[in-house]
Amino acid sequence: MPPVINTIISTCYHCGEKCEQDSVSSGDHLFCCTGCMTVYEILENNGLCEYYDFEKNPGINPTKSFDHKRWEFLDDKKIQKQLTDYLSDTLVIVSFNIPGMHCSSCIYLLENLSRIAKGVLSSEVNFLKKEITIKFDPREISLRKVVETLLSIGYSPEINLNNSEKNKASGQNKKIVYQIGIAGFCFGNIMILSLPEYFDFKSLLTIDFIHLFRYVNILLIIPVLVFSASDYFRNSWYALKNLRSNMDVAVTIGIVGLAVQSFYDVLSGHGGGFFDSLSGLIFFLLVGRFFQQKTFQALSFDRDYKSYFPLAITRAKGNEEKSINVNDLMIGDDIIVHNRELIPADSILEKGEAFIDYSFVTGESRAVLCSEGDLIYAGGRNMGPRLKLKIIKTVSQSYLTRLWNDKAFNKDEQTGVSIWANSLSNYFMVGVILIAAATGIYWKIHNPALVMRSVTAVLIVACPCVLALSIPFTFGQIMRIMGKKGLYLKNAQSIEKLAAIDTIVFDKTGTLTSTDNNDSTFGSSLLPEEKNWVAAAASQSMHPVSRLLKEENTNPEYYPITNWEETIGAGIKATVNGNEIKIGKKEFVSQEITSDDTDDNSFGKTYISVNGIIKTGFAPIQKLREDIEALAQSLKSKFRMYILSGDNDAQQSTLEKYFTKENLYFRQSPQQKLEFIEDLQGSGQNVMMIGDGLNDAGALKASNFGITVTNDIHSFTPSADAILDINNMGLLPKFTSLAKDTKKIVLGALVFSILYNCIGLSFAVRGNLQPWVAAILMPVSSISVVLYTRLASIVAAKRNKLY
User: Fold this and answer.
1) Which pLDDT does position 392 carry in this prediction?
2) Hey, which bits of 82-130 come out as E strands?
3) In terms of DSSP H, where are the helices of 242-363?
4) What pTM did the predictor assign?
5) Both 632 and 735 in a single domain?
6) Pair 628, 734 in one domain
7) Distance CA 789, CA 421 (A)
8) Together in a domain, 667 and 692
9) What is the DSSP-derived secondary structure letter of residue 339?
């Protein structure tokens, strides 16, 4: 049945545009075009009409028709590899920038894409970046069809194989420069043409010329309003549609008020209006916004802390292997990836087979079997013996950080001061608008000439920027300072969680003990060739004991290794050069259960068997780190401290010098560690767990704040809130102290905001502040907040000896 044609002008139920004579209807609803009607019918058929409950006319007018052939290039396998984050026979992950995303209803619709298109598994929106990440099954839907589905509901993705964040930022900077240029040009000319309004030029100019100048000012103000001020109007419209208020709403009210009054004055012949003040207001607002952007870019903490991100990898050159920062990797480099290490960049498997765990990327925990020549994606984790890979793409730290920050690994989002400040910011502008209204009513009664000046000044000078900026800039600066000292935080919320900690739980091996210069006697019963077989099997693992064993051999990679497997908390087994090698606990190495298996001396020992025969057992003498005494003394007065160790209690007497005897726990399995953390939390304690990430993954994830320590091979554990360079363990008390000081810095910024706004409003409500002066003061306040948070953070860091 053809759509019904409407002849009455109304508004589109979907997008809110005017319905002209070619409008159509479906049921009781009118639509401006068949595109909007089609979107409505798609949503209705899929039970998604809740979309319209968020607000009236939330939709974007879709492309009325699009050329399907235009998107044929998305069927090309090479292009798919360029566009996708992950690509396999059963799962594809792709991210698109969606410029048309503008409100909560957009988020609702885009995150329910799986209900519209069969084969889409999930979709997640990052509203601030206007980005959507889509997971879909390529057996049921193609990349091209996914894009066409987005187009069909009115959300056109940006697809540019050459685009980059830098290019996007450059484009944004160019736009504001053009806006400033036009506003400045018009402002200067309007000021000149407005001189007759301020001085007595009647002897020089006829009244006709004065009127002419006024109408020329109208022509000059139009591009300022339409182009230069367009972002303020757009942002205000989106905010009001969502029943919210922001800084741009107040600015827009002031601009509209001045414009309406000015047009009325000129067109009615009452005067020249306020076009000079209006153009100057917009010009100075834009200049202030431009300098704010430059300041933010200079202090781009998010980018900076990613550049400090401590992920290292082993690079192979000939027979030489060296641990380097992943930022130093080049396309074509060969890298060695050990068991459970993260793959930092897209690579090709050079030989053999590999089991890769992509749960970090896809959420699917089942390991994927890869063969020689296969593409291995960044973010995968090696679940077998060590691999040799060749880098084919440069490392993207932002991509790795996005994986680390995935919502699947987040415990809670905002806490404490963040929630309070954000709530205060939401009500701030409502209060400002009420003050402006009261001011306007007062001056309308007592001095109508001051109404526009005072109301506009109130709307402009009141600045909630400090509320919006104080938290991200303070936290960002603190993250940067901590990153320079070796503590790399997952996100800004981690600072508040760190500040709330009252209990610290340490793993022992590899955390409180040093892996350097440890003594052992494991070689006494092994033949030279057997030592090499053992070292070859151990070289595949990241465990501290395995790394000790590797040092006994010169070239372990020359031995063919098959059937390699590592059981966390138990040991390693492998076939090396045709010989069965087992390394680990006695019950793992030998199937025979002897009477001394539970003996104190055997627990914590490492045993080695060759072809089923136990050759030796040894217990590496692990030395405590040199700064443990000072660390324990600094922490014991502020925190409850515990040690959870999987080893025996051979070092208990030494540890009792620094830690309370009743808080030392040995022979703890990974599960027991996790349950211990949960018991502490059940008693109301905020727990920090510090471990090496190997046997402590469960405990790290369960804790309120988890820290993975790193040594020469850097860990990357999604369940941890931070990564700490083990050489800076002694700075832990200073890190916790600085985190607590951060809240004071934020509160100081809030006090500054209150004082600034009280002083500014006191002048504005009395009509003593010109709007263009307020436009200058507003960005100055924002920049001053940035400088305050920076200086206060530096002072706090210096006080804690971290700067």
Assistant:
1) 86
2) 84-87, 92-97, 120-126
3) 247-268, 275-298, 301-307, 359-362
4) 0.65
5) yes
6) yes
7) 15
8) yes
9) T
